[in-house]
Model the fold of this input.
Amino acid sequence: MELDEGLGPLADEAATVLDDLAGRDAVGRLLARDHTLWADDPTEIADRLGWLDCPGSMRAEVPRLLEFADECGADGLERAVVLGMGGSSLFPEVLDRTFGSRPDRLDLEVLDTTDPAAVGRVTADWPPARTLFLAASKSGSTIETRSHVERFWAEHPEPGSFAATTDPGSDLSTLAVERGFRATFENPPDIGGRYSALSLFGLVPAVLAGVSVDGLLDGAADLLAGDLAAAVDANLAARLAAAMAAGARTGRDKLTFVLDHRIATFGLWVEQLIAESTGKRGTGVLPVVGEALGTPDAYGDDRLFVVIGDPGDDDRDGLDVLEAEGHPVLRLGFGVEGADLVVDLGAQVLLWEAATALCGAALRINPFDQPDVAAAKAATQKVLDAGTAPVVPEQPASAVLAQVVAGDYVAIQAYVDPASEAVQDLEQVRLAIRDRLGVATTFGLGPRFLHSTGQFHKGGPPRGVFLQVVGDDPVDLDIPGAPYTFSTLKQAQAAGDLETLRSRGLRAARVTLDDLTGWEAQG
Done:
């Protein structure tokens, strides 16, 4: 794998960071699982480094995984729906959108929303009797996943239609045994959610869809034995980490991804990895994914571009122009002629995991904890306990956007049906904000982003302006065993997160879709 570093104004700072990593033997200590690379206290570090073992340790799981997939097909199951959030669902989503499913395996889908319309479609569009519901939660208590399980179990209480991936001894593991699920896959507990792509959380969906598990592990193993074992100055992960940390230190902290069309959704996974790992203690690297490339006048001096693979002729030319204008541009190889894309993807996963961990070391933060996530969960529970979601006044979009200044980023948080036209409308609004205000933009579906960029929003640099859009729910669904519905849960999650952002003095407002599209139309 090749890395072309057009660091430009970041070159000196990146060299300083790389020297620091070399002086601390950061790569050697990472590979030795030395928690003191990040902190003297081993809490949420020493027990979060198992992802480094996945290229080897997961080999023993392959026969069982293949047998499981064979049995599912033989028993007439045709579709697998992953019920998960964050690290339990984002890599399966990448696999589905990148490779699809083999004809002799199951179609793969991911459900990571509490929007009742989306939840209802899961069983309305496909017979439950031909569906495998794969509940995936490290903790086993994720409220969205447990709500999905209860809903679909009430509709189709057939143990052979359910399986679970979770940590040993979790509530979900206990439930799976009690109800006699077809299979329970207990993942090594020393692997954090966002670092779990090459563990059972990623490999079970992969084998069900017919994606080569051996290929994913081969790519990661090759990187581990090759580029990741190299000296710091030749180490791909260390060089990426140095560039990211240099950007965070000098204000170029908006890491903007331009991706090969073959892995266009890889950004969904890497966004969570980087944002949740680095966005804390007032610092961090904000990954910007899915933002179409613009002209130089759309960008401030807070950008660092990273290209993975071949972005296509137009974007390639545009990036050359941006680099000539003084923007740093990193170009990382992927999928060259004759390459196995599954193998290359496995290598990319481990590379970015290692680079993010080393970036945390360079920034003197713990990349394995998420100290600011609990606040939004607590605020959501407070709303649920109250019985009804509060009425949240909507503010004029123009007034909120008038607060944006250079160096800020605007985050659109959309609690809407993922299949609705609102998503496309908001993507257009996003680009209009970028082009007219010259700031970085992100787009997140709620509640998915709470398990992804939510940590950065609250713990990273306080430069965000947050626009929350909450869709109406003309049809609602009960959650069996819960005193609230899916719509109430969605509304509570939106209200709880908004309250948490505001309690920290951040610029956050609820706005309407019509108001935002009206602002866009004004030109």
